[in-house]
């Protein structure tokens, strides 16, 4: 069951500093939306516009849309897919211009800002969605989509966490049995057996491994641990899993915390070790690869033996040709357990929806076992319903993929929620360049204390 653990920590102190704001869109949205509260398009429509960003999920939801139309002959769904970055830009522009979709796939860390801006329709106020119950989904998911005002703003569609994807070809050449990855541990002092393994898997351009005499850390042919990145305020596929298994937490409470913990010594020592892997040559430095050549591409091109990635990427890894790969759990940390961020997507209805009752019927249908089983059989994500999650696991097993480590982390209570709070965009704007400065060596890890002051100042200024 999903029951993330929250280790205790001391609240960070704050000082008076100038808050850094991410964009000027908040005030503009509030102004325009108050003028457009009558709804986009003016008249009701039997065509429900639905947006999502994951192209690999679009075919499954098109099947659901066809089933929905069959059950509701007078209604149809038009699906539009955009890439991740374009998606949020177009969605924000849509809210401003009054052209936002009726229904859209929402992200756990994005929706608090939309709630603050009053652009989401409470689902519990519409006939078709007011009966959606938290009991239908994996424990904990439904509650995440309930705002501080008690209203539900999203119907859970899936969940995800992270793990280690490995290149079996490179492991075999190094004499490493993939089963060894199931028993790894790390610590911020010497990296534990995890660092020992990735050192051995690293090879310089002369064929010398990272644990051998004469290793040249400045000229690497294969990295033991690829895809290293600075991360952002949530660091979903970078350092957050390591930090949590070291006893760190994002903020004083989650969801709806109001004091972040980026200054914590636990995080500072984690990042000193994590970014230090690049300095040792075991992982890529900031400019080793282009931004488009991330962990997946590094593993597929035999440039990295192990990368950390999300469960949502399984279908993408299935497209790799000529490289045998597998999935292993995250290493155990100093706390004695593994940790992985728990993400969740949900379907939300905009306040400008042309036909809110029709939109609600579509959202309700997507929450049913009928639709979520369709998504499970597509083998792209783990659906929010427990039975559908198991069906998805079986689908992957039939395709020769063992994805059980993701489900095991959930069932073993080794997951934690991504941060849910106000000012998400502002916090991202503060933390992303700050973390990049630390990663590249322009700033020491103690710079996190300054960043933390800026973040927490947001909650005191508003």
From TrEMBL:
GO CC terms in record: cell envelope
Keyword Signal: yes
One Pfam family named in its UniProt record: SBP_bac_8
CDD domains named among the record's database cross-references: PBP2_TMBP_like
Localisation: Cell envelope
Family under the similarity heading: Belongs to the bacterial solute-binding protein 1 family.
PANTHER family attached to this UniProt entry: ARABINOSE-BINDING PROTEIN-RELATED, SN-GLYCEROL-3-PHOSPHATE-BINDING PERIPLASMIC PROTEIN UGPB
Protein name in UniProt: Sugar ABC transporter substrate-binding protein
Species this protein is from: Microlunatus endophyticus
């Amino acid at each position: 069951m999903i029951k993330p653990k929250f280790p205790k920590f001391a609240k960070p102190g704050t000082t008076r500093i100038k808050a850094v704001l991410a964009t000027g869109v908040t005030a503009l949205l509030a102004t325009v939306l108050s003028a457009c509260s009558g709804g986009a398009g003016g008249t009701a429509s039997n065509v429900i516009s639905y947006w999502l960003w994951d192209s690999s999920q679009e075919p499954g939801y098109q099947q659901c849309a066809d089933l929905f139309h069959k059950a509701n002959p007078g209604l149809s769904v038009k699906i539009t897919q955009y890439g991740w970055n374009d998606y949020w830009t177009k969605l924000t522009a849509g809210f401003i211009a009054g052209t936002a979709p009726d229904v859209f796939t929402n992200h756990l860390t994005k929706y608090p800002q939309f709630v603050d801006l009053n652009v989401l329709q409470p689902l519990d106020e519409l006939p078709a969605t007011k009966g959606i119950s938290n009991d239908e989904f994996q424990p904990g998911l439904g509650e995440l989509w309930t705002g501080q005002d008690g209203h539900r703003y999203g119907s859970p569609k899936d969940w995800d966490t992270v793990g280690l994807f490995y290149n079996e070809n490179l492991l075999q050449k190094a004499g490493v049995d993939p089963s060894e990855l199931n028993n790894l541990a790390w610590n911020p002092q010497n990296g534990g057996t995890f660092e020992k393994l990735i050192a051995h898997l690293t090879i310089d351009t002369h064929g010398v491994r990272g644990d051998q005499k004469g290793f040249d850390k400045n000229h690497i042919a294969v990295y033991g641990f690829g895809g290293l990145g600075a991360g952002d305020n949530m660091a979903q596929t970078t350092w957050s899993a390591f930090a949590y298994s070291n006893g760190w937490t994002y903020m004083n409470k989650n969801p709806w915390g109001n004091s972040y913990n980026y200054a914590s010594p636990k995080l500072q020592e984690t990042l000193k070790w994590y970014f230090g892997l690049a300095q040792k040559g075991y992982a890529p430095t900031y400019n080793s690869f282009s931004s488009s050549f991330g962990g997946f591409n590094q593993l597929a091109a035999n440039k990295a033996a192990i990368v950390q990635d999300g469960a949502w990427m399984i279908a993408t890894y299935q497209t790799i040709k000529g490289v045998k790969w597998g999935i292993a759990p995250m290493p155990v940390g100093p706390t004695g357990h593994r940790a992985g961020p728990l993400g969740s997507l949900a379907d939300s209805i905009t306040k400008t929806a042309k036909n809110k009752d029709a939109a609600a019927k579509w959202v309700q249908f997507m929450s049913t076992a009928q639709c979520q089983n369709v998504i499970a059989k597509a083998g792209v994500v783990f659906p929010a319903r427990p039975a559908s999650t198991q069906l998805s696991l079986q689908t992957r097993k039939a395709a020769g993929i063992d994805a059980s480590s993701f489900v095991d982390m959930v069932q073993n209570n080794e997951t934690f929620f991504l941060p849910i709070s106000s000012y998400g965009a502002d916090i991202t704007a503060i933390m992303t360049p700050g973390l990049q400065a630390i990663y590249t060596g322009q700033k020491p890890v103690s710079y996190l204390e300054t960043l933390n002051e800026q973040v927490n100042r947001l909650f005191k200024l508003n």
